[in-house]
Amino acid sequence: MSIKTITPAELSQLHQTSGAVTVIDVREPDEFSEVSAPIAKNYPLSRFDPADFASKHDKLGKFFMLCRSGQRSLRAAQMLEAQGFGSVFNVTGGMIAWESAGLPVIRKK
After folding, report:
1. Is the pTM of this model over 0.90?
2. Residue 67 annotated as catalytic
3. What DSSP designation does 104 have?
4. The CATH number of the domain where 85 resides is what?
5. pLDDT in tens, the chain (109 residues)
6. How many domains are there within the chain?
7. Which of 65, 67, 77, 91 is catalytic?
8. Domain span at residue 28?
9. How many CB atoms within 10 Å of residue 56?
């Protein structure tokens, strides 16, 4: 199976219309604290345990994986798919594309 993709703009629009999206940012905590999407939660890939994640989240939910450029998030999405999650999306271009699209960010002061 191939991982579905979504652009940052599409994800932002989805969040605005549905309100409830689960965005998982798999960058390291220092990267996340420097700049992040306001709708993202940080689960660093270096400590990402897909089995533990699966025990705490509904596999029927939609999950949007985010990183700096889209590579680490793709790996995390593949891990979740292997755990039986059926609706996992990789945010194309990651935070680089998110910022380039002019979407809101939380930036360390």
Report:
1. yes
2. yes
3. -
4. 3.40.250.10
5. 689 999 999 999 999 998 789 999 999 999 999 999 999 999 999 999 999 999 999 999 999 999 999 999 999 999 999 999 999 999 999 999 999 999 999 998 6
6. 1
7. 67
8. 4-107
9. 6
